[in-house]
Amino acid sequence: MSRKAAERWPCEMAATEAPTERLDVARGMENVPVSAWPPGAEPEPFQYTPDHVAGPGTDVDPTQITFPGCICLKTPCLPGTCSCLRHGENYDDESCLIDIGSEGKCAKPIFECNILCQCSDHCRNRVVQQGLQFQLQVFKTDKKGWGLRTLELIPKGRFVCEYAGEVLGYSEVRRRIQLQTIHDPNYIIAIREHVHNGQVIETFVDPAHIGNIGRFLNHSCEPNLLMIPVRIDSMVPKLALFAAKDILPKEELSYDYSGRFLNLMDSEDKERLDPGKIRKPCYCGAKSCAAFLPYDSSLFCPLEKPNIS
């Protein structure tokens, strides 16, 4: 090879091997990058956060540490000895949720070991706090706007991602929803936990402007994800989504917006699903599709009709 050719060769290599920068929807804030499809397309701008943040109207700080830690220093965390496992074990040796499937009936709350616990970071009761573990992709759907899918196999019971965003007070939720039109996407989710004494704990999360990849999850009447409240450091639960079945590569991820999937519905919940309201169509394509997206009338304050008599 001539000297002239040798001098030119490194430049040619640099030109052909220059890496192309790929969009990371998570902005480097997750364990693994989250790609977007098709190439060159990018979802609407929003501020990324992997965890809840305090929003208007809330009287609780989701980052405040409120739970004491366990003292399992020399022994593994097990029910009966670990203060975090009063309701039994949460995960098996493969980090899969133990109570999942139709036999679960209701999604029970989960308490993971927290930052004050003396157990190891590799404790089996630390799953959701480990963050994203699978390669996910935000993609453009035909009728549902943006969606979220997996690029690899996700076994049943594994934690997939959180639904994180601004934790809001009830009045702020009502204000934001009243500003929406039927054409606007609604990201606000209301989680109602029924405790043993009849009390209901409500948590409202809105990832519209500040949130994580969970905001791209679409509804399905036959979903492959189950949402469960998981508490770690704070009384404010993380809204964790687990695989309800084995999920294949390129399969879209979805959950039931109504919360009915694998949960019992009481009469109060049925009243909230008001069939007389103008509803958005559902495009999930499931055999049991209800034709319309779930609607929670308790969050809407109807405007008074003008007197036309």
UniProtKB/TrEMBL annotation:
GO cellular component, one term: nucleus
Domain SET: 134-258
Localisation: Chromosome; Nucleus
UniProt enzyme class: transferase
Broad class of the protein's primary localization: nucleus
EC identifiers of the protein: 2.1.1.357
Database matches in InterPro entries: H3K9_Histone-Lys_N-MTase, Post-SET_dom, Pre-SET_dom, SET_dom, SET_dom_sf
GO molecular function terms listed in the Swiss-Prot or TrEMBL record: histone H3K36 dimethyltransferase activity; zinc ion binding
PROSITE patterns: POST_SET, PRE_SET, SET
Pfam assignment, any one: SET
Keyword terms: Chromatin regulator, Chromosome, Metal-binding, Methyltransferase, Nucleus, S-adenosyl-L-methionine, Transferase, Zinc
CDD domains: SET_SETMAR
Gene Ontology BP annotations: methylation
Annotated ranges, domain Pre-SET: 68-131
Ranges for domain Post-SET: 278-294
Highest taxon of source: Eukaryota
Reactions this protein catalyses: L-lysyl(36)-[histone H3] + 2 S-adenosyl-L-methionine = N(6),N(6)-dimethyl-L-lysyl(36)-[histone H3] + 2 S-adenosyl-L-homocysteine + 2 H(+)
UniProt name for this protein: Histone-lysine N-methyltransferase SETMAR
Originating species: Gulo gulo
